[in-house]
Amino acid sequence: MSQPNQKIGLAILAIGWLALLALSLSPVVGRAAEDNSRFFSETNHTVSGKFLDYWNTNGSLATFGFPITDAEPETDPETGKTFLTQWFQRNRFELHPENAGTNYEVLLGLLGKDLRRTALKLDPDFTQAQPLPDSLFFKETQHNLGSYFAAYWTNQGGLERFGYPISELKAALDPQTGQVFKTQWFERARFEYHPENDKPYDVLLGLLGNQIKTPKGPVEFAWHYLLSGAPNAIARDPRPASNLLYVADRDNSQVLVYNQNMELQRRVGEPGNANGQFTNPQAVQVDRQGFVYVVDGPRDNLPDQNYRVQKFDPNGNFLLAFGGYGSEPGQFRTPRSLAISPTGAIYVADATKGVQIFDSSGNFSGYLAPTGLADGQLQQPTGLAIDGNGNTYLSENLQEIPNSSGGNRVSLFDVNGVYKGRLSFPKNDFIQALTTGSNNTLYVATSKGIYTYNPGDPKARLLFKTGDKEVAGLVNMPTGLAVDAAYNLYIADAGCNCLQKFTQPG
């Protein structure tokens, strides 16, 4: 053979080897893929090649669920590298050709870390732990693997399939199903303990693929961050250059400050009665200059409680306090919530005394409305919100009033403080919180759902139900609401001791 012919032959041979290599790596390549593919009519997606082999030999449907996408290139957020990727209900497959011929050619995505990156820094259940007796302890992540999940982790692939544990074992709510399971997070999975199932199905993997890739409902779940105590309220700093959120942490007598990525910036206050301390922070609001007002009210008949509003500067330094326990104007008996008007006036709703108005220095200037039974008077006012035009909304808790027929309502006062009527809600639908958006839409959190109300529309409209399994976030007991300029909805949820964020198109 001449030298040119030899080169041609070598080139053809090289092309043949490249073709064989591509055939071995690609889940779908030409004719051979037809013999190693499976179409799933349940989700209308096909799994092929290396991905199908891995799915079949490592637990199949019970472990990974159905495919929810086709295979396509995707960038891994952990490494920044692009791999051929396919999503399943419970996980994500990645093809790693650099590991060809080893057990690591197909890897599961780091979905546990993708979903819980903020929690890895802030959530107490994800912070490093001490070794526990009768548990496997991993020094790499400083977490224990105990009785419920150790055998499953070991027998079903261990480190190769699931990665290291990144949390401790705890009871947690699954946002896809609305049920509470004993749960532990790993780098690549979330384990759930199901004692109602026979072994080996008493341990299942969480539906992380669904949770990330196909959230359900009229709003899109964005994040869910657990707290160490129950939140009472949440407020947004309205300054255009600020992205801060303030959370009244009832159980720990403090206010937590986060940025919009849920990274903790600082804590304000501590338990006590001195200036800058709290016994039960009920509500928090921020004015247009960034000054923070916190309602600190009675709780569970504890002695030496605070009945006041405290003001802090934008850095969390105490400035002043006003109020105090009593029946005189400017004093409080049951302070519940606070709102700030466009002019900077401070409105405080007291379930016993009505709504009182103060200036920014804490000086009492009058009543918006007292408690009473007549039109324009209030029965057990609890929630309070003021829109950009100065209209004031007050929720009233009729369920706590003897001989009441039940049901709850929101009273409306216009910019001049004139009573304009009420919005009614279903019986036994307890109103938990109010807020307004930049478009002056009113948002109402109740025990049964989140409602919206637009001025001029006589009907409050249900945005979504609490406990609704069709909503990826699954709100349980909303106690506070905030809305930013992009109409993202932030919810303080005492039912799961967590904060949740939802995005709303338009």
Summarize this structure briefly.
14% of the residues lie in helices and 36% in strands. With 506 residues, it is mainly β.
The coarse silhouette is: elongated
SS content category: mainly beta
Kindly state the mean pLDDT as a whole number? 80
Strand content: 35-45%
Uncertain spans: 1-34
Output the strand order for the largest sheet.
Answer: 3-4-5-6
Using only C-alpha atoms, the radius of gyration works out to 28 Å
Written overview of the protein:
With 506 residues, this protein is mainly β. The protein has 9 helices and 36 strands. The strands form 10 sheets. The protein has a 4-stranded antiparallel beta sheet with strand order 3-4-5-6. Strands 9-10-11-12 form a 4-stranded antiparallel beta sheet. A 4-stranded antiparallel beta sheet has the order 13-36-35-34, with no helix packed on it. The longest helix has 23 residues. The N terminus is likely disordered.
Notable traits:
4-stranded antiparallel sheet, elongated
SSE diagram, text form:
Elements (H helix, E strand, L loop, with lengths): L2 H23 L4 H5 L2 E4 L4 E4 H9 L2 H5 L7 E4 L6 E6 L4 E4 L10 E3 L2 H5 L1 H6 L13 E3 L4 E3 L4 H6 L2 H5 L7 E4 L6 E6 L4 E4 L9 E3 L2 H6 L6 E7 L4 E6 L8 E5 L4 E5 L5 E5 L12 E6 L5 E5 L11 E5 L5 E6 L11 E6 L5 E5 L3 E5 L5 E7 L10 E6 L5 E5 L11 E6 L5 E7 L5 E6 L5 E5 L2 E5 L7 E5 L12 E6 L5 E5 L4 E6 L3
Antiparallel strand pairs: 1-2, 3-4, 4-5, 5-6, 7-8, 9-10, 10-11, 11-12, 13-36, 14-15, 15-16, 16-17, 18-19, 19-20, 20-21, 22-23, 23-24, 24-25, 26-27, 27-28, 28-29, 30-31, 31-32, 32-33, 34-35, 35-36
